[in-house]
Design goal:
With 287 residues, the chain is α/β, with parallel strands linked by helices. The protein has a domain at 1-130: Ribonuclease Z/Hydroxyacylglutathione hydrolase-like (Metallo-beta-lactamase, Chain A). Helix content is 34%, strand content 21%. It has helices at 41-54, 88-94, 96-109, 182-197, 215-241, 246-253, 268-280, and strands at residues 4-8, 11-15, 22-26, 31-35, 58-62, 81-85, 125-127, 130-135, 138-144, 153-157, 162-164, 203-205, 212-213. It has a 7-stranded mixed β-sheet, with helices on one face. Helix 4 runs antiparallel to helix 5 (215-241) and helix 5 packs antiparallel against helix 6. The radius of gyration is 19 Å and the shape is globular.
Length: 287
Amino acid sequence: MSTWTDLGGGILVRQSRAFLMNSVALVHPEHTVLVDPGVLPSELDDIAARVRAANPTNVTLVFTHAHWDHVLGRPWWPAAHTLAHDRFDADMKRTLQWIHEETDTIASKHGEKWAKRFEPFRVSERVAGLHFMRFGPWRAVFRDAFGHSESQLSLHLPEPRVLIAADMLSDIEVPTLNAVPPAVYLETLRTLLPVLEGGAIETVVPGHGAIARGRAEVERIFARDVAYLETLEREVRKLRAGGASLAEAQQKLEGMRDVERHPEYPMREIHLENIQLAYDGVPAART
């Protein structure tokens, strides 16, 4: 089965063997944009071959956030322009040890080696909030996408109606909170809903998992993640208001609906951590 999916118009998606992570290539001879190229050395070689075939005048690397599996492609294009959130540099520096540990582990697991050790880098251009940009023929809209990462951006391509969703809207993973309550993640999704309802999103490329194609499927995956987060927030609030401890809340909600989405990617531990973050974000009951 091909690791590449052609969405048409020069938009290519390559799925990794590692965690089904998606790298996006917006290929054009004037300007090629690579979003989160990765994950394994052989896969990055494959992406680089596609770029060489296009022979673009300009290459830009976009990093949706600073988690280890999304940042590994930089050494393949050392002269490329880079773009990320204005929190990206600090986030990557803070998690450098984690990046090194996971990088070594994933290569060893798949029988590969890195030509050189990953080193942190400073991005060329930083954006935040709502930001409109053009890369040659590509018109892009960047939005803050907090909840999973404090340095996360989503990237919307209005003309082809494609949302590159970073680590959101996955068919294999529940929303994963990162040191924030569910309300932060919910706000990110709700900010995107008017774009969806206006007909401007017909394809969603998640950071991990299957591409959602067609209005009905895109609406379904949005509704699924919103429902998980709303249920988590509501049920934790009720339990804490009733005096339940964190352990009691986790026991009560461990079997919550739609936690396990794929047999090879168990979400139980992440779900329990989500419950804790939701619990910590709710005031304790008055006594």
